[in-house]
Amino acid sequence: MSEKSKLGAIFILLVVFVIGSLCGIGSTIFYLKQAHDRPHRTPRDVYRVQVDRMTSRMERSLELTEDQLPLVRQEIVEFGEAMKELNQSMEPEFRALMDERAIAIEQHLTEEQLTIFRENRKQHQIREEARREKEREGQKPSAWRPNWKDSSRACQGFISSGTNC
């Protein structure tokens, strides 16, 4: 292969690489701009959209009449409220189960690990409360990064998700 052919092939590869890089960067910027400009939907908004979708789907598939539509929608709304109440009533049991799990894990930890584990749980509870408060206020919850206390083993699962610890 001549020197000129080699340089031509390298130049073509370089051009293709640059074009691919520019397309990737441009599409990432476009996606991030779209995601940032999109208004945050509160749980109430999401719920309303779900009710609308379910009602619309049933209206089309069952060919509901104008008289039936508000009645069916009301049933869907009542079902959603009942599910929300059930979820809220189960929260104490869920919390108790989480506490039992923590106690079981604590039995296998050293004193140093126990201190870190309890601190991590405390930080998690603070973050969860802040997230719930933001949702109640209709704000978009912010992203968070866990504090792994320089533990490479605890960090491995998080790294595999593509995030740095």
Descriptive terms for the model:
165 residues, mainly alpha
Summarize the structure.
This protein has 165 residues and is mainly α.
Number of helices: 5
Low-confidence stretches: 154-165
How would you classify the helix and strand content by structural class? mainly alpha
Q: What is the residue-mean pLDDT, rounded to a whole number? A: 80
Q: Radius of gyration, rounded? A: 26 Å
Order of helices and strands: HHHHH
Helix content bin: over 70%
How far is the N terminus from the C terminus?
Answer: 48 Å
Backbone shape:
flat
Total beta strand runs: 0
- Describe the biggest sheet? none
How much of the sequence lies in strands comes to under 5%
